[in-house]
Every structure is written in C-alpha cells, then in structure tokens.
Design brief:
about 170 residues
Length: about 170
C-alpha cells in the first residue's frame, strides 16, 4: 500500500525517486500551497470566546513564523482551542469527582474527557502542534559534514540546489 504523497522537495532530498525535469515541474505545480496571511494582525473567528482570543493570537503568530498557518486555517486553530477548553473543563470535573470519591460520576466524566482529548489531539496534529505532526511537516536538512570532501556528493548537492532555485 502506498504511503501519503510527499512534497517534491522532500523526495529530491531523500533521493529515492528519480523523476524527469518535466515530472518534477508537474508535481511542483500540482502541490497545493496556501498563501500566508495578508496582514500581521490575526483576527480570531467571531464564534471564539473572548477569553481565548489572546491564546489564539499567540499560537497563530508562532505557526505563521514557522510557515504552516494560512488564513484558511484560522477556523481549525479556533476548533483546537475550543476542544482544549472543553477538555480542561471536564478534566477539572474529573479531578473534583476523584477528590469527592464520586465514583458514579467518574465513569461518564472520563468517557467525556476521552472524547474531548481525542478532538483536541486530532486538531493539534492537523495544525502541527504535536511533535510527530511537526516532523511530518518539516523537510529535513542534510547534515553538513556527512559528505565533506566527497566530490560526487558535493556535485549532487549543488545539482539539487540548482533545481530548487529553478
């Protein structure tokens, strides 16, 4: 079974796929890239509670800096914050139930907590807020000293650089 489609820059770096220039350009043209936000002032969606606006702006700023957030992703970030807020509220209720030894409430609360945790986790992964999702989003850079002194490796590296710039 084939894995997920990877960006052409990552394929070139890995060197596992040998594509012609025409195939490379066709794949590069077909890649979907969302434009970065138009302004530096990030506006949270209207449905997001005022209490989450500051956190929304802080996270949005960080995600924009690393180049993975566009305006079309603002709703996804808002959904993440809402899911996180709901998860934290239910977790607080679970902690109170444990402290009060209210075992009858604990089963239902823990199921709800699991649902909210899963929502929050999926939204975080979609935004690149988890370690594993960031590793999938970032194109790794080759180590500098790996091929030092190897003329063939240097020639291949220069060729790959020229292709990226073209």
């Amino acid at each position: 079974m084939a894995g997920p489609r990877q960006p052409i820059d990552l394929l070139e770096y890995k060197g596992n796929k040998h594509l012609t220039k025409a195939e490379t350009e066709a794949r590069r043209a077909a890649e979907v890239k969302a434009p970065p936000p138009k302004s530096k002032r990030v506006k949270p969606p209207a449905y997001l509670p005022e209490s989450l606006h500051k956190k929304f702006r802080a996270l949005a700023k960080q995600l924009i800096e690393i180049g993975i957030l566009a305006e079309i992703d603002y709703d996804c970030l808002a959904r993440y914050l809402l899911a996180e807020q709901a998860y934290l509220a239910v977790t607080e209720q679970v902690n109170r139930a444990i402290a009060n030894q209210a075992i009858s409430l604990l089963e239902d609360l823990s199921k709800t907590q699991t649902r909210y945790f899963n929502q929050c986790d999926r939204a975080a992964a979609a935004l690149g807020l988890t370690i594993s999702s960031r590793c999938r989003l970032v194109v790794p850079k080759p180590p500098e000293d790996e091929a030092a002194g190897d003329p063939m490796a240097e020639m291949l590296r220069e060729r790959a650089e020229r292709r990226r710039r073209a």
